[in-house]
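Notes from the 1:1 (GR / supervisor)

We went over the backlog. Supervisor wanted to see one worked example end to end before approving the batch request, so GR pasted a single chain during the call. The sequence is below; no edits were made to it. Supervisor asked that the structure be written out right there so they could see what the output format looks like.
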Amino acid sequence: MLEEVLSGIVLTGTGTVTGIFVAVAVSVGPAMSAMGRADYLRAHALLGKGYHPLMPILVNVVTLSGFALAWLAGPPGNVLFPLASVLLIGVQAVSHLGNVPINRSLSTLAADGPWSDPRPLWRAWHRLRTGLAAVALAADTVAVLATR
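Structure output shown during the call:
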């Protein structure tokens, strides 16, 4: 029973994280890239309030659930679940070392004046964490299906 509950948490959580990241990559990000600086800074501040602290908590719960499944699941889940959790640690690392510092720097910017547009670098970091999350979702999906 515990294995089934944790499998549901892992699939739902990893799917949610990946889905949010894909939505940002294909819709939110391009829309924000089309905005002028003042509108971009305002939109970024408003959007950030919704994603934090939800995303870090969700990724941590899913990561820990995957590691727990490593002990409960037979092959290949005992390898794929921890692999997915390590990929999600990569998601957290990219977020904390790449995207979050850029996000924090935006709060100090004025709506006008000189600036170095952070959007291209932010998008590059975001694409990396989206890819890591997608591979984690694939690993979790295969693990759940193969351990049935």
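Supervisor's comment: The chain is about 85% helix and 0% strand.
Batch request approved.
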